[in-house]
Amino acid sequence: MRKTERHRVHGPNSLWQMYKTVSFWKVMRSFIVAQIARYTPFLKWKNWMYRTLLKMDVGTETSFGLMVMIDTMFPEKIHVGTNSIIGYNTTILAHEYLIDEYRLGDVKIGDGVMIGANCTILPGVEIGDGAVVAAGTVVHNHVAAGTFVAGNPMRVVYTKQEMEERRQKDIFFQEATDQ
């Protein structure tokens, strides 16, 4: 299950009331920085903008691909470990605005995680170290460390143990063909 805080609203839908929950100026600043970062080809600059201007927790040598869209309302709730890759056009959300409530949740992406292109990561999700998320996946639940997930709805393709066994076979096969 995702870890989100639920906040009830009364009257119009929660998105209509969003500036009661987050400052207009914060959203504007975050939007402008996120748009610049989406097109910046320099990974160090991109990470600096995320860390310094948006207060995101981004590990060293992490790479955000072209067109990655981070949450512009609550970017400080996004945490990405060291040496991870976030693929092209992926969206990372830390909020959900629904009719009668809105939800907030930290997104935690571990070290050495590979996220394919065009994924959507929902609020309150944790992706463990060394996990692999296939392109186009909607990450709606936690992903255990070392597992390979894919699809919509997301499902486990290989567990950590199966991934390790496949890597060992690949290493063995590579060594056998090199000789």
UniProtKB/TrEMBL annotation:
Which UniProt keywords are listed?
Acyltransferase, Transferase
Write down the superkingdom of origin: Bacteria
The reply to whether Transferase figures as a keyword in the UniProt entry is yes
The EC number on file is: 2.3.1.-
Task: Write down what this protein is called.
Answer: Acyltransferase
**Species:** Gracilibacillus pellucidus
